[in-house]
UniProtKB/TrEMBL annotation:
This is Uncharacterized protein. Pfam families: Glyco_trans_1_4. PANTHER family: SULFOQUINOVOSYL TRANSFERASE SQD2, TEICHURONIC ACID BIOSYNTHESIS GLYCOSYLTRANSFERASE TUAC-RELATED. InterPro entries: Glycosyltransferase_grp1. One of its GO terms (molecular function) is glycosyltransferase activity. SUPFAM superfamilies: UDP-Glycosyltransferase/glycogen phosphorylase (SSF53756). The lineage of its organism: Archaea, Methanobacteriati, Methanobacteriota, Stenosarchaea group, Halobacteria.
Amino acid sequence: MTGTTHRNEGEAETRKTDLPSVCVVTHPLAAAGENATRSLLDILSAITSVALVTADLPTDSEIRDRHELVELTQKGAGNSVLVAAFRFLLNQLRMCRVIADRDEDVVLFFGATSYLLPIVVARLLGKTVLVEPRGDVPLTLRLNWEQQLPDKVAAGLAGTVRALERAGFAAAHGVVTYTPEMARQLDLHPEAPTVYPTGARYVRTDEFRVQRPYADRNRVVGFLGRLDEEKGIRALASVAAELPDDVTFRFIGDGDLRTWLEAELASEIDDGTVELTGWVDHDDVPAQLNDLSLLVLPSQPTEGLPTTILESLACGTPVLASPVSGVPDVVREGETGFLLDSRDPDALRETILDILANEDRNSISAAGRDLIESEYSFEAACERYCGILESAAGYSS
């Protein structure tokens, strides 16, 4: 962290005695969930005392060394619906027991918004309860279950999870969302007194910064993330194959479709118009983003606000993304980035070429960086959570 971050952490330290302590509760964590949880813990630990209750935390997670941890189990959700349902119930019972033994004043359910039993128990114990969805979990589950079950069964199960989530929203003292638009897509009213629609996310602005002036960048368009079906990789491959020779398309990341991409785009890879970097360490991501003129991220409707979008804007790299959940509050059409109307390859290709011809890209690059500095820096995130904790504690008392 930079000296600025340390100073603000020191200033936040003086407020710790005024803020309630927090117990963060999550469901079993995959890699993406671990990153988001680590960011949340970093924010909270700068302003108050915090502990994490979770399951199946990766063995090499930084969280183990940096924060107090209670691990319910090392088992994940399971590969079958029946196993997942059993572990879902069992983990809730374990959570109830742990929460009853904790001294924290606030219990924040991060992502685990359908864990109704521990939410209710925490309230009955007199604790302030906050829930913070990370995205549309019921929709995510439905899409996964449709690969194993008849559509009607998958929809019914997902509907049950959504009902539990809605009950969790109602039982909690407050619901935190990433942006106002995310709140609306979850059928919450951003102006409601128990909704906190600008929940803090943050970017390490000292690491993710403009290293290469935007005007000096070549015509390189990129995707950063998992090379999987749900990320629209096949459509992006079609786009990459049809772009002009003076435009390079770079796939940054790894995944199940890596081998398919290498075969599908073999000639383009040979002539240098398509590049596959493979897995890139997080420390090397800022350099990759600084080498792009445009990041294309066909965001899924299940996502809340992908961190990659914030990191790209912090590096002065405009983003072309689908207008789902909280994305439009950050990727503002023609101001900080561009919104994707269609994932059809032909339409996507034309949109990319129109953006590369846009004479306002330099100002859009600067505006994206300004937005991150003003609203998504570590300091701004700490201030937001100070306000959320103060308000929620006052509302529940």
